[in-house]
Specification:
Number of helices: 14
Strand content: 15-25%
Number of domains: 2
Helix content: 25-40%
Bound molecules: magnesium ion
CATH class of the largest domain: Alpha Beta
Largest sheet: 7 strands, parallel
Mean pLDDT: 93
């Protein structure tokens, strides 16, 4: 590792001798595990309805006293096997020795070292990468979207994710309420029962199909026979995309669905890394793909996937796990810096009222379906320390 070493001829005018570079030298890491309650239970294909989510906040403390924050999730389903303890172990035991004493401005070299330390650990990586991005912005005095390439959009349109609901009337009333708020793009969670799932999508398409964009997300819950039963029923409903009906390993099955049905297939759980995405592209297993800040390792890493996917002619769905406004801010900054088209994804899921309470002092600005990247330096969000204290599960 030579990237962080002085070359002897360095003078104070060199960037690595500058005050700003030194202001980014990492002194310590602080992990804050939180359990954040949902307003109502959230049901997807796998497992029992969830009452809340496990959010891990990372604070990077620097020698200058500035603090960067990043968010990741112990999601534990559908391609994520991370727990609070595994995230903590990777960050404390394996990342920390490769972070302390280095400047967050050596971003790419640091990320490469972390990847070398532990293979394919996107969930812990997301918190570190985004906390470094936050600090870069704070030290340079610019919003994160500026670091990510500059402003390309004034605002970013977000969509709504609808959990599996006991009856279709409840589903419709939720959609009507969201349409009244200004949203126009909806993902219906499916994956447990192809007949029930198809009925829910048919019901919504009949009631609202001429006014809204509808997608269905199976969260890997179907087998091939179930997926075909579902697709046979919904293929004429004008769906914008059908997302990850099959398990993440079954790319051949996805490719078969993509060729059999005239409905765009979206990849989500099967895309963690860049090589995963390349496999989806080469197998033509999907024509749309979703990124999530935690699933894919932070804003920069998502951006890399967006570059690869868009070059292959894929549409991009900017998502996120249900989470708090730190990860949401990361996704909104990234989307703001992206000059190409984006679908109306649930990048705002943390703030579009699925959480009973958020953990930042000021919510990210939203007008109708449009989200606005914070203009303050870095990610531009400030933790509400009273709420952090209230929701942290280790009660420090
Ligand atoms: Mg999904």
């Amino acid at each position: 590792m030579t990237t962080n070493q002085s070359h002897g001829s360095e003078t104070s005018s060199d960037w690595s001798g500058s005050d700003r570079y030194k202001a980014g030298i990492i002194r310590s890491l602080e992990l804050i595990p939180l359990w954040l309650p949902f307003k109502t239970n959230f049901k997807i294909a796998a497992g029992a309805p969830r009452q809340g989510i496990n959010v891990m906040i990372l604070k990077i403390h620097t020698e200058s006293g500035l603090v960067g924050i990043g968010e990741t999730h112990a999601w534990m389903r559908q391609g994520s096997r991370e727990t609070f303890k595994s995230i903590e172990s990777i960050i404390v035991d394996h990342y920390s020795p490769r972070l302390i004493g280095r400047s967050i401005f050596d971003h790419q070299a640091i990320i490469a070292d972390l990847k070398e330390a532990v293979w394919n650990t996107n969930y812990p990586m997301a918190a570190v990468a985004d906390a470094m991005l936050d600090l870069q912005g704070k030290i340079l005095g610019v919003p994160a979207y500026q670091i990510l390439g500059g402003r390309a959009k004034t605002a970013v349109a977000a969509g709504i994710t609808l959990g599996i609901m006991p009856d279709n009337t409840a589903l419709l009333s939720e959609v009507e309420q969201r349409v009244a708020e200004g949203y126009s793009s909806f993902t219906v969670k499916v994956g447990n029962d192809p007949e029930r799932d198809a009925k829910a999508v048919e019901f919504l398409a009949k009631a609202m199909g001429d006014r809204i964009i509808i997608r269905a997300d199976g969260n890997s819950g179907m087998d091939m026979a179930g997926a075909m039963r579902f697709m046979n029923r919904v293929q004429h409903l004008g769906l914008d995309a059908v997302e990850q009906l099959l398990p993440p390993w079954d790319l051949a099955g996805m490719a078969e669905l993509a060729s059999r049905y005239n409905v765009p297939i979206m990849a989500d759980e099967c895309v963690s890394s860049d090589t995963d995405l390349i496999k989806v592209i080469t197998m033509r297993a999907a024509s749309v793909f979703q990124t999530k800040i935690a699933k894919n390792g932070g804003a920069w890493s998502c951006k890399k996937l967006w570059e690869i996917g868009s070059a292959a002619g894929m549409r991009i769905f900017p998502g996120n796990h249900p989470g708090a406004s730190v990860a949401t801010a990361s996704a909104v900054h990234l989307a703001t810096s992206w000059p190409g088209d984006l679908l109306e994804g649930p990048l705002a899921v943390g703030v579009n009222e699925i959480l009973a309470e958020d953990i930042v002092t000021e919510p990210i600005l939203r007008k109708g379906k449009y989200m606005y990247a914070p203009e303050k330096p870095g990610l531009g969000v400030t933790l509400d320390e009273e709420k952090i204290k209230r929701f942290r599960v280790d009660k420090k």
